[in-house]
């Protein structure tokens, strides 16, 4: 279960670039708080060009969005909501790292009961129904989500044996990472154009 959570985290927040950014400290020897990054940019420009995301996952996602916003001369800064995006990224983190899931294999799919502490339950109740709406766009399976006092219940079923096997292989966390709409969604959130709130 721990490995499955780790894999989902890596997929959501940058995959191998995340791991490389955590271990590659080229040009950061003796790096201290408040130290200017100008020397890193000059001496490490070739090596940093290989990396796609800097550091911790939520910071990397925010940094990537800020880079896109600053590069676009048409960005309406009066509508930008990076605080809202940060809150969403914290929800994503809670879903992946703090959620306790009991999965039941069904003949035609999967039933998952997800819970956790109060903050995790709140995150689940924001995230799972909204993400289930994205999953429901796939006509190969049927999605049902119920909110409970202790979290959420997710039921994903299908008729096709290959799709059933896929559902069971993905499990709760894989289903939450499926249908990769997250980057576009994060940019819309940052621009104040949240298409579905979670």
Automatic annotation (TrEMBL):
Domain of life: Bacteria
Signal peptide: 1-21
Biased composition (Polar residues): 41-50
Alphabetic keyword roster: Signal
UniProt-annotated stretches for the region Disordered: 28-50
Designated name of the protein: Uncharacterized protein
